[in-house]
Amino acid sequence: MTFLARTALIMGTVFGLVTVGGISTASMALNPGELMSNSTSRSTAEAETLVAQSSMAEEILEAHNKYRAEVNVAPLTWSNTLASNAQEWANHLASLGGNTLQHSSNTGEGENLWLGTSGAFSYTQMVDMWGTEKQYFINGTFPDVSSTGNWFDVGHYTQIVWGNTTEVGCAIATSGGNDILVCRYSPPGNYSGQPVF
Questions:
Q1: Which of 4, 30, 12, 27 is nearest to 120 (CA)?
Q2: Using alpha carbons only, what angle is made at residue 78 by residues 63 and 174, rounded to the nearest 5 degrees?
Q3: DSSP string spanning the chain?
Q4: Which pLDDT tens digit goes with each residue over 81-132?
Q5: Cα angle: 184, vertex 71, 161; to 5 degrees
Q6: Residue range 25-39, pLDDT digits in tens
Q7: How many C-alpha atoms does 68 have within 13 Å on its Cβ side?
Q8: Of the residues 83, 88, 159, 196, which has the fewest C-beta atoms closer than 10 A?
Q9: Whether 156 contacts 107, CB under 8 Å
């Protein structure tokens, strides 16, 4: 069996690329560690969805903060607003058939995208695929941050560890046999002329 994964990123205004952002949609997301009340207004299916979302949030947040701790950058916090925005974009990408990654535009948020065989990767593995870019990272002023000379080789990683970024929210959608992970960041990173951290 072959498992496939692809990634993409978006950053602050750099060489004509525009920061993405600002689409709002309803969400039932919980903050990591938040407990549901025994409300009778939610069905069992909704409760199971909330627990799964909370578990996903905790795992993704832990995976991001592992990389931030390695470079002594403050940990990120989870944002339900960013997660809701990410869910809307993940759903849009899924509506295109589940085989295409394209960035949203004009959202004011940073964005990392990942696509891979449905059910074959944990959330940690998805984030780690972005994190493996650190092998090419050299600390410096963006965009001069890659040993390859091409910042695209480290752009997902630099968004994860960007010193001014304080929040992350992610969501997943499935289509065409693939999972699509969208993570949104605020404030966005990868700004030309700024240090990564």
A1: 4
A2: 70
A3: ----EEEEEE-SSBTTB--EE----------TTPPPP--TTS-HHHHHHHHHHHHHHHHHHHHHHHHHHHTT-PPPEE-HHHHHHHHHHHHHHHHTTSS------S-EEEEEEEEEETTSS-HHHHHHHHHGGGGGB--SBTT--BTTS-GGGTHHHHHHH-TT--EEEEEEEEETTEEEEEEEEES----TTSB--
A4: 999 999 999 999 999 999 999 999 999 999 999 999 999 999 999 999 999 9
A5: 15
A6: 233 333 444 333 333
A7: 22
A8: 88
A9: no
pTM of the model: 0.77
Task: Copy the structure tokens of residue 12.
Answer: 């602050």
81 residue type, one letter: T
